[in-house]
Amino acid sequence: MRTPAIELVGLRKSYGDNEVLKGIDLAVAKSQVVCIIGASGSGKSTLLRCVNRLEEPTGGEVRIDGIDICHPDCDLDLVRRRIGMVFQQFNLFPHLKVRDNVTLAQRKVLGRSRADAEAVADDMLGRVGLTEKVDSYPSQLSGGQQQRVAIARALAMEPDMMLFDEATSALDPELVGDVLDVMRRLAAEGMTMLVVTHEMDFARQVADHVVFMDGGTICEQGPPETIFGNPTEARTRQFLERVLHH
After folding, report:
1. Rounded distance, CA 17 to CA 224, Å?
2. Would you place residue 170 in the very low, low, confident or very high pLDDT band (cuts 50, 70, 90)?
3. What are the start-end ranges of the H helices in the chain?
4. Which of 81, 62, 72 is nearest to 13 (CA)?
5. DSSP state of 137
6. What is the DSSP letter of 131?
7. pLDDT by residue (tens digit) across 59-91?
């Protein structure tokens, strides 16, 4: 049994009396794409943010390649370098050109020279289809282009795994496809991905494993053909009927 890339063991998260995650157990194998679906407020984003400790778990363990990153001796910065994260908001620096947005962390965190960082940036921007935008400012790009820059920025750090938190939900519908195409290509290349999404077609087509969350728990999980085609839980069926038929 190979060590999972990401493993959550009894993960809990509370804000005061409000328990948002109620003991989550989840394993993501290397090169696996796991999509987390569920209604707003079910704990999906909180779970994702606990994986790189943007949120501090209240209890349980978060293991990255077998390392418990909640342990006091863990070098969190070192582990975080291995985890790329793409948010709903693009978080680009508005005063920096696209290429500089993608080189900044490489130079500051990885210590790459400007020339090396720019070479990687140009390579990654090519991968997301934005070669011609390297000298543009974020304000000159569509939301979908900005999100692809954010993906390129994450990839430039050469992470072992990528977390996507509703990466398309802030985009106009006609711009969603370009971002999902980039994510599809990453999946096809074998990137380990944990994806919180409301794009059911993407989850159905790209995920190896789908997790349905409800009320801070994993209600049901399995291969997409099972979750979408023949879910066992009534809550899963109700959720899917609501999102697929509106």
Report:
1. 34
2. confident
3. 44-51, 76-80, 98-109, 114-127, 143-156, 173-188, 200-206, 224-229, 234-244
4. 62
5. -
6. G
7. 999 999 999 999 889 998 888 889 999 998 888
For the cut 70, the answer to whether the pLDDT of residue 246 exceeds it is: no
Kindly tell me if the per-residue pLDDT of 4 is higher than 70: yes
Burial level of 188, CB count in 10 A (0-12/13-18/19+)? exposed
- 220: region left, alpha or beta (phi > 0 left; psi from -120 to 50 alpha): beta
Average pLDDT over residues 19-25: 96
Q: Are 213 and 37 in contact (CB under 8 A)?
A: yes
Tell me if 162 sits within 8 A of 154, measured CB to CB: yes
Mapping DSSP to helix (H, G, I), strand (E, B) and coil, where does residue 107 land?
A: helix
The predicted-structure confidence for 104-158, as pLDDT tens digits, reads as follows 999 999 999 999 999 999 999 999 999 999 999 999 999 999 999 999 999 999 9
Q: Which long-range contacts (CB under 8 A, 24 or more apart) does 176-180 make?
A: 176/144, 178/129, 178/144, 178/145, 178/148, 179/144, 179/147, 179/148, 179/151
Query: 246 - beta bridge partners?
Result: none
CA 187 → CA 33, 35, 54, 121, 216, distances in Å? 7, 12, 24, 20, 27
